[in-house]
Each structure stands twice: as structure tokens, then as C-alpha cells.
Automatic annotation (TrEMBL):
<feature type="binding site">
    <location>
        <position position="125"/>
    </location>
    <ligand>
        <name>a divalent metal cation</name>
    </ligand>
</feature>
<dbReference type="GO" id="GO:0004523">
    <property type="term" value="F:RNA-DNA hybrid ribonuclease activity"/>
</dbReference>
<keyword id="KW-0255">Endonuclease</keyword>
<dbReference type="GO" id="GO:0032299">
    <property type="term" value="C:ribonuclease H2 complex"/>
</dbReference>
<dbReference type="InterPro" id="IPR022898">
    <property type="entry name" value="RNase_HII"/>
</dbReference>
<dbReference type="InterPro" id="IPR024567">
    <property type="entry name" value="RNase_HII/HIII_dom"/>
</dbReference>
<dbReference type="GO" id="GO:0006298">
    <property type="term" value="P:mismatch repair"/>
</dbReference>
<feature type="domain" description="RNase H type-2">
    <location>
        <begin position="20"/>
        <end position="217"/>
    </location>
</feature>
<dbReference type="InterPro" id="IPR001352">
    <property type="entry name" value="RNase_HII/HIII"/>
</dbReference>
<dbReference type="InterPro" id="IPR036397">
    <property type="entry name" value="RNaseH_sf"/>
</dbReference>
<feature type="binding site">
    <location>
        <position position="26"/>
    </location>
    <ligand>
        <name>a divalent metal cation</name>
    </ligand>
</feature>
<protein>
    <recommendedName>
        <fullName>Ribonuclease</fullName>
        <ecNumber>3.1.26.4</ecNumber>
    </recommendedName>
</protein>
<keyword id="KW-0963">Cytoplasm</keyword>
<dbReference type="GO" id="GO:0003723">
    <property type="term" value="F:RNA binding"/>
</dbReference>
<keyword id="KW-0540">Nuclease</keyword>
<keyword id="KW-0464">Manganese</keyword>
<comment type="similarity">
    <text>Belongs to the RNase HII family.</text>
</comment>
């Protein structure tokens, strides 16, 4: 059965209720064995134009389509941002805390770009408000299951964050070859696991997630 394209119906209801802007939010790289976790944000307001044709949750798009859509999504929204937390931080703090840390960094970037975050609503994919747990001043956050599929601002955040993180992993594959990161983007493919067993872990690996002894590659 075909999946409907995301709409702005839910975002428009939040704007009508008084939000200055709606900031779609989604995370990427949560389950990877290597590389950072990324949290993407895409802010819209009443001036938002037509949704870019073909925009969907990043998981529903090929890499080629994501690359084509990312700049369209970035120009469609008021501002976008991607916050990162490193593999070392994931090992030291845990993945949930690092989702919040990456989210906090992305929100600071949005603030510096001119978005009044405190007067906005953050529309967060899923049912767990991991973002407010990391903030000293709570924001108005609305969680929504499948928001990345159904809500265009969250789909845009998903695509922007995915392309940003993928490019980092492709660059890392060039500088630290042998792990196939250009293809697996740090996730646990058979070839990636085999490379870890043969070569050991690198500084980009979340060593606390590995059952194999770590080494510097």
C-alpha cells in the first residue's frame, strides 16, 4: 500500500494555536556502531511555501534522492541545523544523554540564526521527550509517533540530518579506509563487523557497544 506524502496539517494546527514557529526534529545515527549521533532541526512559520516535491522521511528515500532533496529542504524552511554528539561522548555519557546533547547544540545553532526557540514548538518524532531532559530551560515540545513520516517539517529535518551525517561518514571512510563507511555509514553490516574483528576499533567507533576488544586503527 502506498504511503501518503507528509503534510503540514499538524504544524499548521500548532501555528494556529499561537506558536511563533514550529521546529521539526528528528535524530539520525542512533543505532550506528561508528560515527556521531545527529539531531536535525527544520523551522517553519506561517510564511512556509509548498512542500518540496518528493520530500519524505529519509528512511524512505534512496541516497541519491536524499542528496537531491536536502538543499531543497534547507531552502524551503526558515532555518535548519544539525547538532552532533561524538562516538566518544556516546561511550562516556550514553546514547540518550547524547541525543539531548546533540539536540541542545542544534538548538543553539538555530538561536544564533535568529529563530526564537523559546516562543516556538518543537515537534519531535517518537513518544519520548529526550530533548527537554537535556535542557536547563524546558521548551514546549510535542512528541508524535511517525512524525517523520506524516509531518513535513520533521521529514525535512530527517533528510537534512541524514545527508549531513552521511557526508561525515563518507569523508571518514576516505581518511580511515577499510571499514566500508561510505556504504554502511557506520551501521553494523557484516563487512563492517568483519573489519572491526580484523583491524580493531577506531576513534570513530562506539567502543562500549562492541563486544570485541578495541584498538587504535
Amino acid at each position: 500500500m502506498a504511503v501518503a506524502d507528509p503534510t503540514l496539517e499538524f504544524e499548521q494546527s500548532l501555528l494556529a494555536a499561537g506558536a511563533r514557529s514550529v521546529i521539526g526534529c528528528d535524530e539520525v545515527g542512533r543505532g550506528a556502531l561508528a560515527g556521531p549521533v545527529a539531531v536535525g532541526f527544520a523551522a517553519i512559520d506561517h510564511s512556509v511555501g509548498p512542500i518540496p516535491v518528493g520530500l519524505r522521511d529519509s528512511k524512505m528515500l534512496s541516497e541519491k534522492r536524499r542528496e537531491a532533496l536536502a538543499p531543497l529542504a534547507e531552502s524551503w524552511v526558515l532555518h535548519s541545523a544539525v547538532g552532533l554528539a561524538s562516538a566518544e561522548e556516546v561511550d562516556r555519557l550514553g546514547i540518550i544523554a547524547c541525543l539531548g546533547l546533540a539536540g541542545k547544540r542544534g538548538l543553539v545553532e538555530l538561536h544564533h540564526a535568529g529563530i526564537d526557540v523559546s516562543e516556538s514548538v518543537v515537534l519531535l518524532d517518537g513518544n519520548d521527550d529526550w530533548l527537554n531532559k537535556a535542557l536547563s530551560t524546558p521548551l514546549r515540545i510535542v512528541t508524535r509517533v511517525k512524525a517523520d513520516r506524516d509531518c513535513a517539517s520533521v521529514a525535512a529535518a530527517s533528510v537534512i540530518a541524514k545527508v549531513h551525517r552521511d557526508r561525515l561518514m563518507i569523508a571518514a571512510d576516505a581518511s580511515t579506509p577499510g571499514y566500508g563507511w561510505a556504504g554502511n555509514k557506520g551501521y553494523g553490516s557484516a563487512a563492517h563487523l568483519s573489519a572491526i574483528a580484523t583491524r580493531g576499533a577506531t576513534a570513530l567507533h562506539r567502543t562500549s557497544w562492541l563486544k570485541l576488544p578495541s584498538a587504535t586503527a
